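Feature request, filed as a ticket because there's no other form

It would be nice if the structure record came with a short human-readable summary line next to the tokens. Right now we just get the raw output. Example of a typical job, pasted below so the devs can see what we mean:
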Amino acid sequence: MSALFRVTSRAVALQRSLVANQAATLRACRSIKTSPKKDETIAAPASVTTEDFANPSPKNWMSYGFDYKDQAEDRKATKATFFVTVTLCLVWGTFYWSYLPDTQIRDWAQREGFLELRRREQAGVDLVSPDYVDPASISLPSDEDLVNTEIII
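Raw output as currently delivered:
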């Protein structure tokens, strides 16, 4: 119990010291004064024409890589590309792929297999016939042919 009390009192003391440090930092930040910079002057652009006002270029425009000269064309191409890739390809492509018909007839084959197993169980027959392949149609090598051959089963 005393150990719990010591840990709690240390945590409270640590929290109080952190709050005191933050308050001291805030007070120090509030007392900083700045003076205007020497080079801070207002200057008009060299030549301003009516075309500059008609077609202002954004100050810090970065292209998405579709058009490096026109911001509107760049944004339009970006939105069109992402619409096609995300909406058409990913969303509708996934929807189409998930609802495709079973072209390899896997569902039918599995269903037929279960029906055949149920029929054989009810008839009391072996589930898989030992004579599935006719033994007369299989040609095995003779013992003389297999003298030095290692057979791994």
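Something like this underneath would help us a lot:
The two ends are 69 Å apart (CA to CA).
Residues 57-124 form one domain.
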